[in-house]
Amino acid sequence: MQIIRNPLEWQQQTSTHRQAGRSIGFVPTMGALHEGHLSLIHQSKQENDITCTSIFVNPAQFDNPEDLENYPVTWDDDIVALEAAGLDMLLYPAQGSMYPDNYTYKVVEQELSREFCGEFRSGHFDGVLTVVTKLLNLTHADRAYFGEKDWQQLVLLRRMAEAFFMETDIVPCPTVRADSGLALSSRNENLTPDERRIAPWLYKIISSEMTVAEMRETLEGKGFRVEYLKEFEDRESKKRLLAAVYLGNVRLIDNVER
Ligand code: PAF
What we know:
This protein has ten helices and nine strands. By secondary structure, the chain is an alpha/beta fold. Strands 1-4-3-2-5-6 form a six-stranded parallel β-sheet, sandwiched between helices. Pantoate binds next to strand 2 and helix 6.
């Protein structure tokens, strides 16, 4: 596996693969890899000649400096997992190299990005859309893979790719869950043992037959602080129920078809 730290070198290498007629699948991540990320890599390996990943904890998408500081970093384990998965290329950008402009240029969406998570995490999706645009410009990918756990992110990225006539297909991949039903997330690393026991209730409750009001009450009774619990409908897919909750300091999101 090749590890590249210079974005321009990465751009050159991916361009060479593309020119040689090799298809490229890309899985952008912020590290702290789990089975969810690895499932995206496996899918990419089945569908492309070359599979690339990036590990970049993107400061621009954190509205809260403490959240950025506490974001889990598991570099050694990540490398072992990527090698075992048979990854071809990893972009691990050097400090400062992704924002030569100091983040003075941004990709901004003005409607959906202000709702759901966007209502509570100011500027979060500007950061996500901007960094993914940069990563796609660098990677020349035929396909980029994103998990359905981040449903709002996925919809925004799919619409952005359409809006900017991007050449990369945005491929949605099903949420990977623990046996308990808990959606895998890098943030689960920060749950205490007690919180870990409670966390699977999130999925159990939102996938139940209860009304949204009953769900909220039941979640609060279990010790969750509910940030939002709201239905989302778009032209491309069936209605979903999207949820963001806190257990202690850990923010968890999940969604189900409604
Ligand atoms: O979903 C994530 O891990 C991040 O938002 C992404 C897409 C890698 C952009 O930093």
